Amino acid sequence: MIDKTTVPGRVVRVALLALWMVITLFPLYWIVVTSFKEPGAIAAFPLRYLPHPWSLENYASLFSKSDFGVYLSNSLLVSLSAAAVGTLISLLSAYVLARFEFRGKGPLLLAFLVTQMIPAFIALGPLYLLMVNLQLVDRKGGLVLLYIAMCIPFCTIMLRGFFENVPDALEEAAMVDGCSRLTALFRVIVPVMTPGIMAAFIFNFVNCWNELFLSVTLMNSDSNKTIPTALNGFISSFNIEWGPMAAASVLTIVPTMVMFALASRWIVQGLTSGAVKG
Amino acid sequence: MAVTDQASRPSQRPAAERSSPAPPRRKRQLTIRRGLGVLAFLAPALVFVVIFTYYPLVRGSEMAFKQWNLYDLRNTPFVGLANFKTLLANPTFYTVLLHSVVWVVGSIVPQLLIGFGLALLLRRHFRFRGIYQALVFFPWAVSGFLIGILFRWMFNGEFGVFNDLLRKAGLIDTNIAWLADPTLAMFSVIVANVWYGVTFFTIMILAALQSVPDETLEAAALDGANKVQTLFHIMIPFIRTTLLLTVLLRVIWVFNFPEIIYGMTGGGPAEQTHIVTSWMINFTQAGDYGLASALGLIVVAVLVLFTTFYLLALRDRDA
């Protein structure tokens, strides 16, 4: 182990941390650099580690040759609404699972856990048929419903961990003062749990934003596509146009990065405490 | 449905809680009125999970025993174990099974080691730690599919940046066709997965390490334990439960994680990077949900068996 107090220890420590940071950030750096190169310069030798000259052509062609703006706003709409509703529903179920003992609670938690372990593809076919029957194929609302269902199990387990860190006395006092359980929950506990709830929401958002196979299966008209489906369209043809692809990747990563940056402290705090308490 | 995109992190308790149980939290007993209240709170979650997760799951399991093709929906007879027989008679099945094992072991071992090291480095507070964590945890926010694409670009044999860096470092003279050679291709997808998965281990282990009481560490230091002894005799035993559960979950999850491979190699060259779940995509794309579901059930069976043996082996060692 590395001793923090001695000078060589500190040097090794900082060097290792810096090394891992470089390894982590390099792929991101490379895709950003690529996205700003002129199309002709992307596969030109020697490789350039900075674009020269900087060019927005890849981004321009992304928006002129495809409806990338539409995909972006579809993805934002679907992910934000699914994450918000999913978090709200999970908040209610997590609250009950943290605060009450009742028969079937163990199996219920297990049922939520099991959903995390089964390969997605078993359910894909029946899910498609179900959506056909509900007339929800190629409808953004349909995808939102599926994503809400996808968020709930894990989000419930995570929020339950946060609830267990909040003393019962808080809402009991509010209820003695005449609040109903629901008002006590939203007026008293939710404000205390804001970091955890934000962490859960962002986690849900990232999951929905990145989801690939459901959206590819269900969303086929151009005006309803979300970003992962569009990216999948880019690679299914044999020749990948790397310039627009890199630009699309950057635009795909940016929203999740912004979310992470805005809430990084909450996420790490929330996830670590949630993970331990579970 | 289990679209476990980022992580599955179920309940676990730190060793501290188990060794010295706190007095149990006072739970209210249920009256009928309260029971209805509980149900009302749970109902939305249950409705969603039952309709969109468990119902398709049950129907999907049923499909495994049918001839069921998306392009021939009028003709879906019950065929018993025929789908399973077809799979077991296919030599590729055994290849992808073996690849899955290589993929899981090759990914998890480095992830665990690097993640543990990083967690140790991040354990104590230092200036800019928050920013550092936000940056270093970022792979976690990127989809597996996109990671596949990023690494596909960087491992490109002609204008990939890895070849360029290795040449500049003087390590190679001619470009390596990373994704065209079966062994190297498997190595490459594993590198991408390690890069992605370290964060999860770091977060879990960091969280667990923060539950090790400082007094215990100080006591060990007073008794003359050096850093290595403290690590192996105090810290690791203390967080053992978290470690073992994290590994178990990750094995299950990495086994079921085809996105990176799908985006990076599509299973090629010549199906040499397919794992079971990425291979399954071929069947769903061909509309053959009967075969895909049968394969899915085999995956579940393998994972249940693995989990059982893993937990049994742990219990034996404890006894």
UniProtKB/TrEMBL annotation, chain A:
Keyword field contains Transport: yes
GO cellular component, one term: plasma membrane
Origin: domain of life: Bacteria
Topology within the bilayer: Multi-pass membrane protein
Segments forming domain ABC transmembrane type-1: 72-263
Any single GO BP term: transmembrane transport
Positions of transmembrane segments: 12-32, 76-97, 109-131, 143-163, 184-206, 246-268
Swiss-Prot/TrEMBL keywords: Cell membrane, Membrane, Sugar transport, Transmembrane, Transmembrane helix, Transport
Alphabetical list of Gene3D superfamilies matching this protein: MetI-like
Entry-linked InterPro entries: BP-dep_ABC_trans_perm (IPR050901), MetI-like (IPR000515), MetI-like_sf (IPR035906)
Pfam families noted in UniProt: BPD_transp_1
Subcellular location field: Cell membrane
Keyword check for Cell membrane: yes
Family per similarity comment: Belongs to the binding-protein-dependent transport system permease family.
Protein's UniProt name: Multiple sugar transport system permease protein
Taxonomic placement: Bacteria, Bacillati, Actinomycetota, Actinomycetes, Propionibacteriales
UniProtKB/TrEMBL annotation, chain B:
Keyword field: Cell membrane, Membrane, Sugar transport, Transmembrane, Transmembrane helix, Transport
Any Pfam family the entry gives: BPD_transp_1
One annotated Gene Ontology cellular component of this protein: plasma membrane
Main subcellular location of this protein, as a coarse class: membrane
Any single GO BP term: transmembrane transport
Keyword match Ligase: no
Location in the cell: Cell membrane
UniProt-listed PANTHER family: BLR7065 PROTEIN (PTHR43005), SPERMIDINE_PUTRESCINE TRANSPORT SYSTEM PERMEASE PROTEIN (PTHR43005:SF1)
Annotated family: Belongs to the binding-protein-dependent transport system permease family.
UniProt name for this protein: Multiple sugar transport system permease protein
